[in-house]
Amino acid sequence: MIQPYSSDHCIRNEREAGIALLADQLAIKFAERASKHDRDGSFPFDNFVDLRDSRYLKLTVPKKYGGEELSLYEMLLAQERIARGDGSTALAVGWHMALILSLRYTNRWSEDLFSRFSAEVVKDGAIINHFASELATGSPTRGGKPQTTAAKVVGGWSISGRKTYSTLSPIVEHFTISAGIEGNDEVGEFFVRKGPGFSLVETWDTLGMRATGSHDVILDNVFVPDEEVISLSGLEKQRQVTDDGSGSLMHIPACYIGIAYAARSFAIDFAKNYKPNSLPGPIADLPRIQQQIGEMEADLITARTLLYSIADRWDRDPDGRVALKPDLGLAKYIATNHALRIVDKAMRIVGATSLSRNLPLERMYRDVRAGLHNPPMDDVVLQNLAKRAIQE
Known about the structure:
Blueprint: H1 14-40, H2 45-53, H3 72-85, H4 87-106, H5 111-124, E1 130-131, E2 149-153, E3 156-166, E4 174-181, E5 187-193, E6 198-201, E7 215-225, E8 229-231, H6 235-239, H7 251-273, H8 287-316, H9 325-350, H10 361-369, H11 378-391
Parallel strand pairs: 1-4, 2-4
Antiparallel strand pairs: 2-3, 3-7, 4-5, 5-8, 6-7
Helix pairs in contact: 1-3, 3-4, 3-7, 4-7, 7-8, 7-9, 7-10, 8-9, 9-10, 9-11
């Protein structure tokens, strides 16, 4: 699973090598637990203890608040490697890492709120995610208005509703939510703390990514003070919120590339060591197996090269981030679809044994399917690329 830094063309310096090493060390532990959490559909609290203890959770926090201020490129290096150990843990913690990275550039939160929460991350290992999905609206990226409502009360807001796909819900003590404003068509965003009126319904029982804790969250007149309102009409203009092209969502393709890398490595090790008595050597010597390995390599190198080259462009050109959005989507499209092909080929190399639940391949096969349902969706990516081509 661990790749020597000298052979990884995506690692460019000693800082990045150190980030990769930290993630590799965590991934080894997570890989040992992945099967149990997958079978049980249980949330990997033990993994998050390790993430806290290693200070991983603060890596994208700004340096002025005590974090390491990882760039997008550096965050992807770390996230890809976490996914080599356990895809569910990588995808789940990726939302936390990405949200903090995004807040550094977009200015969506007030400085006071962001500094206070960052201090909690650095000191206590606080974790956060944004809960937006609802059963009636589907993916929030499609633009549906949330049925969760926020009503003005003395000193703040009273929020009621139900959120689905609430990844990290078993462990977060703070989260943000989108809600329709009672009495008009506006949608606001609120910083919510677990407390009176909050409840968790354990609905997450899925084919893949079974350990992300993406349960339903119910809010019943949960109070949010005025100072923890993130966005309402006029607030974003006051803060001069910046559109960063949603670059932080690149943690999603990094996760699926990591899973594919782990499957590819398992299959290669198997091919090098499996010696049926009908052959003079291992199956890795067979031309058809070498062709399948070569096809996996072609897909993996293509996906990684595209992902990291676009992340580097995003880091280096803040003014060009919005224009880069179709390319960011393309990186996700290539990564998830190539990951599907890589894991499929890995299972073909290993053969019927790959279906055994005693091996990790069948879990990886199920986990990579989830990538098709993470934003941006394939149809949106292709439409954006088509629109840009037509305009050009």
